[in-house]
Design brief:
elongated, mainly beta, single chain, Jelly Rolls, 129 residues, five-stranded antiparallel beta sheet
Length: 129
């Protein structure tokens, strides 16, 4: 696959209250593109700091059969007003190369104590024809 002249798309998802429970969304390649490479996964527009009493919240990027086939961002204690991404969790991207089928994105709630964290997740993908 040639990596010259990719079509870079940022998929930004609606604000999600991770403390209130899990959620999910998805995306597909733009028409005419067959392969992609995940460049970044993160949280933005954080309006409530994430808790991490027992387990952290996660943003998982994968398939219907493997929720974290491509990435799993540990949201740790992402702070309100910050942007939190693969600079904070440097091993979040598990398999950067993805195909053009539907990609599943799961928002996993933190556990223990008083679960909290509100943010908009995003995934940045470079698509190739």
């Amino acid at each position: 696959m040639s990596y010259s002249n990719p079509h870079v798309v940022t998929y930004k998802f609606a604000s999600h209250d991770f403390g209130a429970g899990a959620g999910a969304s998805s995306f597909k390649a733009p028409n005419g593109y067959s392969k992609g490479r995940i460049l970044d996964v993160g949280l933005m527009d954080i309006t409530e700091t994430f808790t991490n009493a027992t387990t952290p919240g996660y943003v998982r990027v994968g398939t219907a059969g493997d929720a974290d086939a491509y990435a799993q961002l540990d949201c740790g204690v992402a702070a309100a007003t910050d942007t939190y991404n693969t600079q904070n969790d440097t091993d979040a991207i598990i398999e950067a190369d993805i195909d053009s089928t539907q990609i599943e994105v799961a928002f996993i709630a933190p556990t223990g104590g008083t679960p909290a964290g509100i943010a908009s997740a995003f995934v940045v993908v470079a698509w190739f024809a």
